[in-house]
Amino acid sequence: MTSTPVAQNLAGKVALVTGSSRGIGAAIARRFVGEGANVIVNYLGNETAAVKVVNELCSIRPGSSVAIKANVSSFNAVKQLSEQALKAFGRIDILVLNAAMVQDKDLSEIDEEDYDMIFNANVKGPLFLTKILAPQLPEGGRVIFFSSALTRASGVASNFLLYTASKGAIEQITRVLARDLGSRQITVNCISPGPIDTEMFHQGKTEDMVRFHESFHPLKRLGLPEEVSGIVALLAGPGGSWINGQTIGVNGAYCV
């Protein structure tokens, strides 16, 4: 039995995917390479995981991926990341801003340091990486931000205050930049996942807590990273050319 060939919708494209050494980011990198793109895998601390992903991608297509370490919450670091990324393959066509930081504190516990940490990682870094690379993106380029279903969920817990606020900012940045960059035929969209079955999601959660999140979905399960990467690939490819300025929920009806 022969396998169905994967459409090469991204052939000849180069993508930078932040936070792509694991979870959703790694799934996006795999999908992109499978559809013909070269991918820069950005990571912060886990070099072993990043190298593993790059080796996997290069086994699919030799020379299709490199790893670059960078803290995307720092302006100087994102500037260096952009320079290294452009040197890696000579261009960037697709920018996926997946890296983020989650914090577990409510109003009574947060302080200025917490605020700066979350907003630097989740808002400042993605915004300024986009600012730096936008002039380098070709006509028809793609910028894809990441939000969270928590910006719409009525049952959001108080301890996700700063995280949810930062993702709300990203959704508004998406709306404005879609008009700004649209004059150059560059689309800007945002993916808003619900609970996804990743290592990060399971950290600090008991089995009962995981089952609680599963119970919110009609399908009674968590989403898979591959179920997010498919939507990202659609936005990144020719099929996404008329989708612009949108925040797209990928949450299995976790919130509607």
TrEMBL record:
InterPro entries: NAD(P)-bd_dom_sf, Sc_DH/Rdtase_CS, SDR_fam. One of its GO terms (molecular function) is oxidoreductase activity, acting on CH-OH group of donors. It comes from Schizopora paradoxa. The keyword ATP-binding does not apply. Keywords: NADP, Oxidoreductase. It comes from the Eukaryota. This is NAD(P)-binding protein. Belongs to the short-chain dehydrogenases/reductases (SDR) family. SUPFAM superfamilies: NAD(P)-binding Rossmann-fold domains (SSF51735). The keyword Oxidoreductase applies. Pfam families: adh_short_C2.
